[in-house]
Amino acid sequence: MATAASLAVAALAAVTACSSSDGPAFTGGDNSTPTAIPPSVTAATGAPTATVGEDATASADVTIDSCAVDATTKIPKAELTVTNHGSDTATYTIRLDFVDGGGTRVAEGAAIANSLAANQQAKETADGTAQVTSDVTCKLAKVQRLAGM
Fold this sequence. Notes:
This protein has helices at residues 2-18, 56-59, and strands at residues 25-26, 39-42, 48-51, 62-69, 76-83, 90-99, 105-116, 121-127, 137-147. The protein is mostly beta strands. It has a six-stranded antiparallel beta sheet. A three-stranded antiparallel beta sheet has the order 4-5-8, with no helix packed on it. It is elongated.
């Protein structure tokens, strides 16, 4: 029993050490830039930048279609397309960061795509958690694909 508990603790520590809730942004230019990661969108210019999230495979299933700050409420909003490229039904939890021009996170957003069958798409919206006064870039911070849900 003690061996099983030790193995469970070691496995949890390994998973925790490998996970990151804040993935770096890549703008391209070298061989280390991932190519399967969907683009972020800058609200001001629409210029794409690639991002890395929690799980590159799950992140590849999420595309940021638009990223804008509402002129009236000043709340940032991202429109997403989630495509289940897997062979089983899955639920996706998505966390986004809304980042200003200086690279500072100014708000967060989240979305859930429930029970997507294989090859099914869903349109989701992630609203920001705070008002912002500048243009923002939307970046995938964490994407989890929960199989069988």
